Amino acid sequence: MKAIEFKTTIHNNTVTIPPEYSDEWEGKTIRVIVLEDSNVDTLLETTISLFEQDEISLGKASEILRINQIKLQKILSQRGICVHYDVAEFQEDLELEHLKQKGYL
User: Fold this and answer.
1) Domains of the chain: which residue ranges?
2) One Pfam family, short name please (predicted)?
3) What are the tens digits of pLDDT across the range 31-73?
4) How far apart are alpha carbons 71 and 74 in whole angstroms?
5) DSSP secondary structure letter of residue 11
6) DSSP 53
7) What SS3 state is found at 71?
8) Concatenated DSSP letters for 17-46?
9) 7 vs 43: CA distance, rounded Å
10) Centroid of chain to Cα 79
11) More confident residue, 52 or 100
């Protein structure tokens, strides 16, 4: 699943996708989640709910919330929510560690 985030204002019950995304999404069926920008609690609850349902990854959730993944993991842990961490993600982390040890990252 691919997701984008942007800010916009709804006019006449229409959500306008910014021009930099419009060509890519033209003609596609999409899912829209409308969050009031000023309500941080709603954003947190909605993002955690989407994460729990495997609709978004930990990385995307932390990006939406504008917090690092470690902080998000602590929030999830406090709520008794397990972090989804599969073999592919583990292998990616091993590869990154290997690159760090070589001084590439």
Assistant:
1) 19-101
2) UPF0175
3) 888 777 666 678 898 999 999 988 888 888 888 898 888 899 9
4) 5
5) B
6) T
7) helix
8) PPHHHHHHHTT---------TT-HHHHHHH
9) 13
10) 18
11) 52
